[in-house]
């Protein structure tokens, strides 16, 4: 079992003919992901990757020939919001947006369209998701993943990889890892992903990685206390980050006291969530709790 | 991207929002004639001289002066233009005032606080207003939180008109016929200009019963500059840290801090976590630096150049998670960069991910002095030991 994604999930790639799109589509195929086709407006009729995947002008055209469960978006940021909106309009169940740098105003439109739809959006500005030894959507390196019992969710890309690596190295292994994205407006919150992990029998514990800015970790902490009965190990990046500075991610900026790493750690602990003191203790902390 | 008060007022003015009017002065020989122009054009003998820098607290720092006579205006203008202004937001080094705004002086009856921003928790734009204007709003929020009124705008549940009516009620402006139009115009300015923040502190009611924006502070969404031709030209690079500016030219994300352990990392989250673990082991990070996904010879070389421009840096910690980019390639990149740059600080390298073991061997067997580490923990300890 896993969440959101398994080996059968049929995947479309928006922006398949761009250099990023092409490279990562091949990586996904090599990992075993069931990528069936791609979309690049104006390039319908061409093929892409070593597997000669068909390219369509629109998702609608692709849907005439394929049943699409999920789409992944590798489109330049100024066009990415429209790519998401197209996927929402075509009722794609899972939409994963890798693109970084989408204007906030565009994401407001996306968010309101999303609220009135049945689609799930992961990202933007995220590495995507991966179900160990089955399928990946996005850019997570596949070979570091091994099947096991821990779910991972994170606002940061490389910290997701770091967590996967540690969880695998301590011998626990993973179910699905989801990078939810570092932007101020993202499609799925920590709580949204925790709900999926709650319903997955194979997931015995969850690593939840947050950072400064916003209040998502605080809301997740309160929700875990009342609703989630699997162990959670958290880590919050940015304890040394100065106030008012944007730390790489558009969403990683402290504008209120409750958005600092220290404030978040305090709330998480108060709600019964274990917090790894440093980034290198994520794996060991989880192992200790699972062994108990 | 931050812009100056006079630029923010120009944006508001484009949306027919009444502002306190004035002209900008860039050199001292324009001062006298500009003061005269302001006095004549706006029928105001008294004028206000305002330093234009990207930092708050200008008044307290001596960068804003009300001048009742022409003589005092000339004196203040000459003093403020070119001064090094120190406020609680500039840091000790202060900021050079390259331009001043000379405005009409208004007879003020009431001062309000006004702001528009995006509320991440509610996923909606929010108006924030208070009858306690002209003062430090964070202090008001802390001491008298009930004096801060919020009204959210999302087109589904809370339409703009409702939010505007809420703030008009809260500020007691029901008798002002133009209030509704003005607040809607400010919102449209905020939305169409892709503002992260639009703050007017204070928004005033004058003795002759006019609503006027006395000040304006705007932060623009940098990701939207491609469609904001006018605002893009407002970019004032002299307001930015020269190193951060240089880094952005290299496509790197750098923020200078006060410590002496330089950090070079791929990914923003891992970069923050690396700074944190340096601190955890008793060191102080010198910077945040995200070299991005492609950690190759050039990005590493440029990263070193930026980090080592800071004279405080005594050691450099490189922490790369090689995902798609394999660690052996990163290792060779590090070695080549160190050789070409002739470094004189200790460098600790931790590479994890694909081919990490091969990478460590490459580092250990190279003929240059590098300290390798397997875990972040070990790497941070070693980098801190080099400076203590």
Write the layout of secondary structure elements.
The complex is a heterodimer of chains A (292) and B (388).
Chain A: E1 10-14, H1 19-31, E2 34-39, E3 47-48, E4 53-56, H2 59-65, E5 70-73, H3 77-89, E6 94-97, H4 104-115, E7 120-122, E8 128-131, E9 135-138, E10 147-154, H5 157-169, E11 174-179, H6 190-198, E12 205-211, H7 216-227, E13 232-237, H8 261-270, E14 274-275, H9 282-291
Parallel strand pairs in A: 1-2, 1-5, 2-4, 5-6, 6-7, 10-11, 10-12, 12-13, 13-14
Antiparallel strand pairs in A: 3-4, 8-9, 8-11
Helix pairs in contact in A: 3-4, 5-9, 7-8
Chain B: H1 5-14, E1 22-25, H2 31-41, E2 47-51, E3 64-67, H3 70-80, E4 84-85, E5 95-96, E6 100-104, E7 108-119, E8 124-130, H4 137-143, E9 148-153, H5 160-171, H6 179-192, E10 195-206, E11 211-213, E12 217-220, H7 229-232, H8 242-249, E13 253-256, E14 261-265, H9 268-280, E15 287-290, H10 297-309, E16 315-322, H11 327-341, E17 346-353, H12 356-365, E18 371-373, H13 376-387
Parallel strand pairs in B: 14-16, 16-17, 17-18
Antiparallel strand pairs in B: 1-6, 2-3, 2-6, 4-5, 7-8, 7-10, 8-9, 10-11, 10-12, 13-15
Helix pairs in contact in B: 2-3, 5-6, 8-10, 10-11, 11-12
């Amino acid at each position: 079992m896993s969440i959101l994604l398994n080996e059968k999930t049929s995947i479309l790639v928006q922006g398949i003919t761009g250099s990023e799109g092409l490279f990562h589509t091949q990586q996904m195929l090599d990992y075993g992901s069931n990528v069936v086709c791609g979309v690049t407006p104006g390039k319908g009729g061409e093929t892409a990757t070593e597997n000669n995947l068909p390219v369509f002008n629109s998702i609608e055209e692709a849907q005439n020939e394929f049943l699409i469960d999920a789409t992944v978006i590798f489109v330049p940021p100024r066009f990415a919001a429209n790519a998401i909106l197209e996927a929402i309009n075509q009722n794609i169940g899972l939409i994963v947006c890798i693109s970084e740098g989408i204007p906030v105003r565009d994401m407001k439109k996306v968010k309101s369209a999303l609220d009135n739809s049945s689609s799930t959006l992961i990202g933007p500005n995220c590495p995507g998701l991966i179900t160990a030894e089955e399928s990946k959507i996005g850019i997570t390196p596949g070979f570091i993943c091994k099947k096991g019992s821990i779910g991972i969710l994170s606002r940061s890309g490389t910290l997701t990889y770091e967590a996967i690596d540690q969880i695998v190295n301590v011998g626990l292994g993973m179910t699905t890892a989801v990078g939810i994205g570092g932007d101020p407006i993202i499609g799925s919150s920590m709580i949204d992903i925790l709900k999926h992990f709650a319903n997955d029998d194979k997931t015995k514990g969850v690593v939840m990685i947050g950072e400064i800015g916003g209040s998502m970790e605080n809301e997740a902490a309160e929700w875990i206390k009342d609703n989630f009965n699997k162990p959670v190990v958290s880590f919050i990046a940015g304890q040394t980050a100065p106030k008012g500075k944007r730390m790489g991610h558009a969403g990683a900026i402290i504008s209120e006291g409750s958005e600092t790493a220290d404030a978040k750690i305090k709330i998480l602990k108060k709600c019964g969530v274990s917090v790894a003191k440093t980034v290198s203790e994520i794996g060991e902390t989880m192992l200790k709790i699972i062994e108990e | 991207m931050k812009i100056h008060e006079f630029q923010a007022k120009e944006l508001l003015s484009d949306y027919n929002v009444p502002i306190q009017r004035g002209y900008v002065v860039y050199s001292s020989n324009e001062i006298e004639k500009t003061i005269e122009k302001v006095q004549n054009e706006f029928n105001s003998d008294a004028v206000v001289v305002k330093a234009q820098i990207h930092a708050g607290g200008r008044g307290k720092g001596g960068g804003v002066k009300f001048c009742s006579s022409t003589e005092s205006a000339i004196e203040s203008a000459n003093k403020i233009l070119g001064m090094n202004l120190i406020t609680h937001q500039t840091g000790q080094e202060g900021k050079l005032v390259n331009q001043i705004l000379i405005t009409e002086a208004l007879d003020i009856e009431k001062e309000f606080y006004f702001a528009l921003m995006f509320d991440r928790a509610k996923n909606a734009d929010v108006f924030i207003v208070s009858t306690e204007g002209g003062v430090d709003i964070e202090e008001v929020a802390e001491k008298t939180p009930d004096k801060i009124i919020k009204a959210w705008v999302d087109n589904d549940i809370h339409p703009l008109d409702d939010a505007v009516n809420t703030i008009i009620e809260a500020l007691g402006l029901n008798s002002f016929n133009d209030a509704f139009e003005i607040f809607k115009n400010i919102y449209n300015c905020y939305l169409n200009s892709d503002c992260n923040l639009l703050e007017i502190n204070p928004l005033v009611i004058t003795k002759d019963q006019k609503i006027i924006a006395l000040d304006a502070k705007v932060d623009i969404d940098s990701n939207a500059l491609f469609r904001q031709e006018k605002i893009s030209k407002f970019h004032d690079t002299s307001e930015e840290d020269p190193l951060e500016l240089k880094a952005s030219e290299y496509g790197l994300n750098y923020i200078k801090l006060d410590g002496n352990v330089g950090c070079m990392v791929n990914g923003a989250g891992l970069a923050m976590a690396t700074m944190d673990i340096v601190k955890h082991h008793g060191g102080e990070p010198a910077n945040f630096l995200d070299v991005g996904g492609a950690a190759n010879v050039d990005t590493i070389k440029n990263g070193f150049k930026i980090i080592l421009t800071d004279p405080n840096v005594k050691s450099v910690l490189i922490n790369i998670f090689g995902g798609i980019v394999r660690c052996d390639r990163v290792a060779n990149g590090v070695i080549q960069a160190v050789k070409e740059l002739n470094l004189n600080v200790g460098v600790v390298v931790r590479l994890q991910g694909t081919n990490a073991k091969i990478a460590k061997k490459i580092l250990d067997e190279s003929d240059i002095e590098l300290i390798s580490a397997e875990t972040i923990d070990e790497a941070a300890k070693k980098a801190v030991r080099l400076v203590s």
